[in-house]
Amino acid sequence: MAHKVLVVDDEPKWLRIVDLYLRGQGYEVTTTLSGQEAIEKVRQDRPDVVVADISMPGMDGYELCRVLRSDAATRTIPFIFLTGRDDDTDRLKARKIGSDDYLTKPCPLERLTQSVDTLMDRINQAKKIPLGQVGLSGKIEEVDLLDLIQTLELDQKTGALILSHGERTGILYFRDGVIVDADIRSPKREEPLFVLLGWKTGNYLFLPDALPDRMPITASLANLLLQDFRTMEAHEQKAQGVPQQESSALPHESVKGPEGHVLWCLDELARRAQGGLTPGSGPHLLRILVVGVARSGKSELIQRLVSDLSGSRWTATGVEEPQARYRTDFGRVMISRDTVLHLIAVRAEKRYWPVWEQLLPGALGAIVLVNSGADASKNHVRAFLKARHTLTPNLPLQVLVSQEASPEDWPELEASDRITGSLQDHSVRLTLLDRLLQQCLVAS
């Protein structure tokens, strides 16, 4: 069935343009010129998504969003602001009252359909794992934490999600489906939410109606995740040099073969980016995204690349030691005292558009994994490739196509942008990374 979209805007000409475009994309569209009329239409014929302007006479978009979010019957309907107000204050206010996306006019209408598709995919995925089937407790390795958290959001749950991973513990507090506080600790220190979301083993328990004494967090899960990631990178930027206990790996000048060439390329890219590194100025961060659908091998590829490039120095979320039984979503390699490589696993499913939007612009390049011929997987990967073309059209890209997936299924990819093989193959991994870095050097 076609998704139902309600568009609210007091400009009839713009409303007509959006209406015609969305109908052409296969959506069932209803329009209205006012916030008050929109509330009536939502109650009469519940839409799948609401798209609204902010500046409207009478009830503005902010008030419309507040009213819908305060009603238990409508609070989970995705809400997108499409407005001419391009100001950080408005964006922050929109997030605080519960909007799911914020687009500014003139907005490419293709971007609007991407936003709608992202929200619909998120909801459809969450519906696949209702809590009644998953249970209020279980093993982390049997669920996807992000999907579990989004299910709690969609079902408007209030309570505490308690997670344990070895000696580490984490608690996420929800009120009506919104994360309002987080407490993640290890024996050594408090840890960011980014670390918790990388846990692949352990236990979870949801306690309904449990709330903390204080509730300082009002941001969405994606915003929390990205905020922690930026904090982690900022902290590393301030670090001076490399601690003595971490300097056991050989300098890249002494590493021979394909590994040595890859390390040289990374250091050269960092040097070019900074116009010549100044000793003691702190590491320059190079970020490469490893993109794929769930269980496509992103974590394994990161772990193997880290081992290939620096067997003695690396860190990753949710991992204490680089043992094969663990899988990680984040890898770090000290290339030199002045250069650090970050490998970040990114999900290719459409609902991760907000993460793509934040991480793609700052990335050096991206590796995409294609290991399934299933239509759903191919559609997700194509959605990511399309987003990359929209957000960062010049971002260097390499695609690893497994033996199970036919290269002929990807006519949109140039032969120079893809490799067929297994991520377990050492030569394939290094060739993949080397080709990506060669593209980066040409682009720089």
Description:
The protein is built from 14 helices and 16 strands. The termini are far apart. The strands form 3 sheets. A 6-stranded mixed β-sheet has the order 12-13-11-14-15-16, with helices on both faces. With 444 residues, it is of the alpha/beta class.
What's the quick description here?
The protein is 38% helix and 21% strand. The protein has 444 residues and is an alpha/beta fold.
Which labels suit this protein?
single chain; 444 residues; alpha/beta; six-stranded mixed beta sheet; five-stranded parallel beta sheet
Could you give the topology of this structure?
Blueprint: E1 4-8, H1 12-24, E2 28-32, H2 35-44, E3 49-52, H3 61-70, E4 79-83, H4 88-96, E5 101-104, H5 109-127, H6 131-134, E6 137-139, H7 145-154, E7 159-165, E8 168-175, E9 178-185, H8 193-196, E10 203-208, H9 221-238, H10 257-274, E11 284-292, H11 298-309, E12 330-336, E13 339-347, H12 353-359, E14 365-370, H13 375-391, E15 397-401, E16 418-420, H14 426-443
Parallel strand pairs: 1-2, 1-3, 3-4, 4-5, 11-13, 11-14, 14-15, 15-16
Antiparallel strand pairs: 6-10, 7-8, 7-10, 8-9, 12-13
Helix pairs in contact: 2-3, 5-7, 10-14
